[in-house]
Write a structure and sequence with these properties.
200 residues, 88% helix
Length: 200
């Protein structure tokens, strides 16, 4: 059984080789014909290129070219192997100190401007509160006398009590604003629901 399979495979290989040899013969014949046709077709072009190359070769004198190459070789041989590079800075030796001083001046200026803006904001707030208290003193003298009296008795406790009242007032205002917003949202949702129900 194995012998027959081997013989079959050998026979197939022989047939493949014979087919391949036939194709190679065709290629050899076809390639020769192609090269002959190519050479005939482009003979004039190749001859003109060869003539140009020959003309270009005659333009340059070999002795001059060799002399230039020798001169360049001498220049390269005379160059030092290590070329020292001098490190220079634009500002010289004091550049590091200058940069540090500029950074410190910038930080100091930024801090000064920030502090001035903070104090300006605090001053505006205190002016507003002073104006409000002046209005209370002018319009409600009894209330202002009571406040002055409480401040004279125990200023820390009164200020603490006032701060608590302000926090409570701000919380109430915030809650009212939130409730108003929720109410507006509910109103808008009802309007949308009515539009959907009416089919507009």
């Amino acid at each position: 059984m194995q012998k027959e399979e081997i013989e079959e495979k050998v026979t197939m290989m022989e047939e493949l080789f014979q087919g391949l040899i036939g194709r190679i013969d065709v290629l050899e014949i076809g390639m020769a014909d192609f090269l002959k046709a190519f050479m005939e077709q482009y003979r004039n072009v190749l001859e003109s290129i060869a003539a140009r190359v020959e003309t270009a070769n005659k333009r340059y004198d070999e002795s001059k070219i060799q002399a230039n190459i020798d001169e360049l070789t001498k220049v390269v041989a005379n160059m030092p192997k290590v070329i020292t590079v001098r490190n220079t800075h634009h500002f010289g030796a004091w550049s590091k100190s200058l940069i540090i001083c500029v950074v410190i001046a910038f930080v100091f200026s930024a801090g000064s401007v920030g502090t001035a803006l903070y104090f300006n904001h605090q001053n505006n707030r205190l002016n507003s509160e002073a104006y409000n208290f002046w209005l209370v003193r002018a319009l409600y003298p009894e209330v202002s006398k009571t406040i002055d009296g409480k401040l004279a008795e125990d200023p820390n406790a009164f200020i603490h009590h006032a701060e608590k009242a302000m926090v409570k007032q701000q919380a109430i205002i915030a809650a009212e604003a939130e409730a108003k917003q929720v109410e507006q949202q509910q109103k808008a949702a009802k309007q949308r629901l009515e539009k959907v129900k009416s089919g507009k």
